[in-house]
Specification:
By secondary structure, the chain is an alpha/beta fold. The chain has helices at residues 16-28, 51-56, 71-78, 96-107, 135-138, 165-172; strands spanning 3-8, 82-89, 116-119, 129-132, 144-148, 160-162.
Length: 176
């Protein structure tokens, strides 16, 4: 029987860091360099306390997020040996549901609608593996965890870390 993998969207296949910094500069006129984020919590990324929530609530934010380098090719490769599910906690911003679905249909049209899960709490996910950048999702997952490197998780080491999609493929090669 094929094993299954839950793949997070934001910060894993969707380059949320680049999107946030681009939109922040566009809307607030301040450029923040990615190296300045290392070790910060997500709520500490930008000086204005509610800027991240405001930007995330802006129509078009999720729909125009860049694809993470190597993600499309890697997901296609993983699908050769695994059942791959895209899992996103998309309930906080209701407009994100159609935007994320449109984004997936554009960039990952080979993913069936049956393999897309939008939820509020990822602890219900029962796949064999989970690739995510958030400790809160990985800590409660019952299968094997793979932590995708992000500025907000650099100080955690209790999950298998990968820095990019090439490392994901190397790790998963021959495991399934």
């Amino acid at each position: 029987m094929r094993k299954s993998i839950a793949v997070d969207m934001d910060g894993v296949i969707a380059d949320e860091e680049t999107q946030l910094l681009t939109w922040y500069e566009k809307h607030y006129g301040v450029k923040i360099h990615p190296h300045e984020l290392i070790g910060r919590k997500e709520e500490e990324v930008v000086p204005e306390r509610d800027a991240y929530s405001k930007l995330s609530a802006t129509p078009g934010y999720f729909r125009t997020t860049p694809v993470m380098p190597g993600a499309i090719e890697a997901v296609k490769k993983l699908m050769e040996n695994y059942d791959v599910y895209i899992v996103s906690a998309a309930m906080q911003y209701p407009h994100s549901l159609p935007e994320k679905l449109g984004w997936l249909n554009e960039h990952f049209p080979f993913i069936s609608w049956r393999n897309i899960i939008f939820c509020g709490d990822k602890s219900i996910i029962g796949t064999d593996y989970m690739i995510d950048d958030h400790i809160k999702n990985l800590d409660f997952f019952k299968g094997k965890t793979i932590m995708f490197n992000a500025f907000h998780n650099v100080s955690y080491n209790h999950h298998q870390r990968v820095n990019n999609w090439d490392e994901v493929l190397g790790l998963m090669e021959g495991v399934g």
